[in-house]
Design goal:
six-stranded parallel beta sheet; alpha/beta; 447 residues; single chain; 12 helices; Quinone Oxidoreductase, Chain A, domain 1; 23% strand; Rossmann fold; six-stranded antiparallel beta barrel; 2 domains
C-alpha cells in the first residue's frame, strides 16, 4: 500500500490522506520516461503559497489527482496534490543514461506512490526537463530535475540518529538541500542580478525578469546610496539572501536592516559574514521605534528598499507610517514583494493583499522569471556553473548563516509525524523560524 496526501483547492487547511493498493500502481513505462518514488521532501511556507495560488500559477498542474483515486479525492476541480521540493529515486527507466537508483532533485508530489516523468536531457550535464504536455503550464523552474550523485543509495541510509558518520553527514546535507536548494535561488538572484555588483558586465534584471518588459534600469539596481530593509528576515528565503548580501563588496548598500523574530541568531550570522556596511537586526515590536529611525537618519540614504519576505501582518505599514512621520526627508522607497506570512489566507485577505500591492506600488518578485532572464543573458552553461558553485559554498557554510536552525524529521505521509501533521502545523502557523520540516517518505529498506 502507498499513501497520498491531498489538499482542498477551496480551503487549503482542509486536507486528507488515503492509501492506494499496489495493484493501482502504474503500468508499462511510456517512451523516454522514468518511474520515480519520492524519498525525502521538505515543507515550508512556500508550500502554502503553491496551494493558495495553485490555480492561478498552475502549481496544481504538476501532479494532478487521478480519476482512479477514491472519491471524492479524484475530483480535480476540488482536490489537488501540493508539491514539495526534495529528492526522489528512479525505480524503473527506459532512458539509457538514467539508471535505476539515480537520485533526482526537484519538485515532487507529497505522496509515497510512484509516478512517471517524461524527461529530455538538458544543459548542463545532469539536468533533465519534464516535457509532458500537461505540465507545460508550469514555469520552467518547476520542470527541471537534477541528478544528485550519492556515495551510498538513499534507501540504505540509516534513519536520523544512527551511529554511522557517513550516513549522518549525507542525510544532513540532503535535508538542508531539500529545504533550501530551490528557495535559496531567489535571494541569490536578487543579489546577483537584480542588484548587480558590476553593472558594466551584468545588466540589472527586474525582479519579474524580462518576460513582461517592465523597466528596471541601472539606477534601479544601484544600492550605493540605499538602505535595504529585510522584512521577515528569519524566513528561509531571507536568510539565504542575507548570506550573499552581507558578503558583497562592490556596489554595497549603505546599510541592511533585518526585521525578525530571531534577532540573536541573525546577529550571530552577521558576525560570521563580516559585512563591509552596517547591518542591524531588530524585532517586529521595535520596527517603528525611535532607535530605528535615528539609525536610518545617521546613515542618510536617498533610497530605502523594502524586501517583503513574509513578515507579520501590518509590519510594513507600521514602518512606512513611522518613516513618513519621523524619517529622513527626500528619500524614495521601493517595495519588492517576495513571500507571504505562514498562514492560510482567506479570499478577503487575498483581495486586501492585492489592493495593497497596487496602493503601495509593490513590485512582485518571481524566481523562475529572474532565472530565465539570467540564463538568457549569461548562457545556460555559465549560469548554472555560477549558481552551482554558490550553492555548494552556501551549503558548506550552513551553520554560519542559520546557527539556530534545526532539521525536524518526520516520516511518511499520514499522522502527526508525517506530511499530514506538518501541513496542519503550517496551516495553524505553528512552524517556528528555527525549524525546518523534512520528511523521509520511504523507510531505510524498500516499502
Amino acid at each position: 500500500m502507498t499513501e497520498v496526501h491531498v489538499v482542498s483547492k477551496q480551503d487549503i487547511s482542509e486536507h486528507a490522506t488515503f492509501t492506494l493498493p499496489v495493484s493501482a500502481e502504474l503500468g508499462e513505462l511510456s517512451p523516454s520516461s522514468v518511474r520515480i518514488r519520492p524519498q525525502l521532501v521538505s515543507l515550508t511556507s512556500n508550500n502554502l503559497t503553491y496551494a493558495t495560488l495553485g490555480s492561478i500559477l498552475k502549481w496544481w498542474d504538476a501532479y494532478p489527482v487521478q480519476e482512479s483515486y477514491p472519491a471524492p479525492y479524484n475530483d480535480s476541480s476540488k482536490w489537488g496534490i501540493a508539491p514539495a521540493w526534495g529528492f526522489a529515486s528512479i525505480e524503473e527507466t527506459n532512458i539509457s543514461n538514467l539508471a535505476p537508483e539515480t537520485l533526482l532533485f526537484g519538485f515532487w508530489p507529497t505522496s509515497a506512490a510512484p509516478i512517471d516523468l517524461k524527461l529530455e536531457q538538458s544543459t548542463p550535464s545532469g539536468h533533465w526537463i519534464e516535457t509532458s504536455e500537461y505540465r507545460q503550464t508550469l514555469m520552467p523552474l518547476y520542470n527541471r530535475f537534477i541528478v544528485t550523485p550519492l556515495s551510498i543509495p538513499i534507501h540504505t541510509i540509516a534513519d536520523p540518529g544512527a551511529v554511522s558518520p557517513v550516513s549522518i553527514d549525507v542525510l544532513d546535507r540532503l535535508a538542508w538541500s531539500s529545504v533550501f536548494r530551490a528557495i535559496w535561488q531567489c535571494g541569490h538572484h536578487l543579489n546577483e542580478y537584480t542588484f548587480p555588483a558590476n553593472p558594466q558586465t551584468q545588466k540589472a534584471i527586474h525582479p519579474l525578469g524580462d518576460r513582461f518588459n517592465l523597466p528596471w534600469s541601472e539606477e534601479d539596481g544601484d544600492l550605493s546610496s540605499a538602505v535595504v530593509v529585510s522584512l521577515g528576515a528569519s524566513t528561509k528565503t531571507a536568510r539565504t539572501f542575507a548570506y550573499f548580501f552581507e558578503r558583497r563588496e562592490a556596489k554595497a548598500p549603505l546599510g541592511l536592516l533585518q526585521v525578525t523574530s530571531s534577532v540573536t541568531a541573525l546577529e550571530e550570522a552577521s558576525k560570521a559574514a563580516k559585512p563591509s556596511f552596517p547591518s542591524k537586526s531588530v524585532t517586529y515590536a521595535d520596527v517603528a521605534s525611535e532607535e530605528v529611525v535615528e539609525w536610518l537618519k545617521q546613515i542618510g540614504p536617498s533610497k530605502v528598499i523594502f524586501l517583503e519576505f513574509g513578515a507579520r501582518e501590518d509590519v510594513l505599514t507600521k514602518f512606512l507610517d513611522s518613516f513618513k512621520q519621523n524619517g529622513p526627508e527626500s528619500v524614495s522607497t521601493v517595495i519588492i514583494k517576495i513571500g507571504s506570512p505562514q498562514k492560510v489566507l482567506s479570499a478577503e485577505e487575498l483581495g486586501k493583499a492585492s489592493t495593497e500591492m497596487t496602493r503601495l506600488g509593490k513590485i512582485q518578485c518571481n524566481t523562475s522569471d529572474m532565472q530565465d532572464s539570467a540564463i538568457g543573458a549569461l548562457g545556460v552553461e555559465t549560469f548554472f556553473q555560477t549558481i552551482s558553485a554558490s550553492w555548494e559554498k552556501l551549503l558548506n557554510e550552513r551553520h554560519n548563516w542559520a546557527p539556530d536552525l534545526n532539521i525536524v524529521w518526520g516520516h511518511g505521509i499520514s499522522g502527526d509525524r508525517g506530511i499530514e501533521g506538518g501541513w496542519s502545523r503550517l496551516c495553524r502557523s505553528e512552524v517556528h523560524a528555527e525549524e525546518a520540516l523534512v520528511y523521509r517518505l520511504q523507510g531505510s529498506g524498500r516499502t
